[in-house]
Design a protein that fits this description.
By secondary structure, this protein is α+β, with helices and mostly antiparallel strands. The protein has one domain: 3-Layer(aba) Sandwich (Glutaredoxin). It has 6 helices and 4 strands; from the N terminus they run βαβααααββα. It has helices spanning 11-22, 39-48, 51-54, 60-64, 74-83, 105-112, and strands spanning 2-6, 27-31, 92-95, 98-101. The mean pLDDT is 96.
């Protein structure tokens, strides 16, 4: 089963969901605002991707928390991701043992169609 993690109001998440719906691909949606993503799950994602890819430095939450000023190391980034899920780049899509972070239609076509 394909799982899409994110928030419903995110433009990239909406694009990913629209792609799935247009291509009749079944998926389960996990909303960060309802289901907290814990350190264990984030570590699983890092193993399939990278911490720097998952850690969203372009979002409002990153700017609001002024995290750039803290010069976070890898372990601090992991702690922040688990504490504040809105720092996770969206969407995160689990496809079996593979992971796609962010909206990338070409990669979706390659992996899903």
């Amino acid at each position: 089963m394909i799982k899409i993690y994110g928030i419903k109001t995110c433009g990239s998440v909406r694009k990913a969901i629209a792609f799935m719906n247009q291509n009749n691909i079944e998926f389960e949606f996990v909303d960060f605002k309802i289901t907290k993503i814990d350190t264990k799950k984030i570590k699983e994602w890092i193993a399939k991707s990278s911490l720097d890819l998952l850690f969203n430095t372009r979002g409002t939450k990153y700017r609001t928390l002024k995290l750039k000023e803290l010069n976070l190391d890898q372990s601090a980034k992991l702690e922040w991701l688990a504490k504040e899920n809105m720092l996770i780049k969206r969407p995160v899509i689990e496809i079996g043992d593979k992971l796609i972070v962010g909206f990338d239609e070409e990669r979706y076509i390659q992996m899903l169609l």
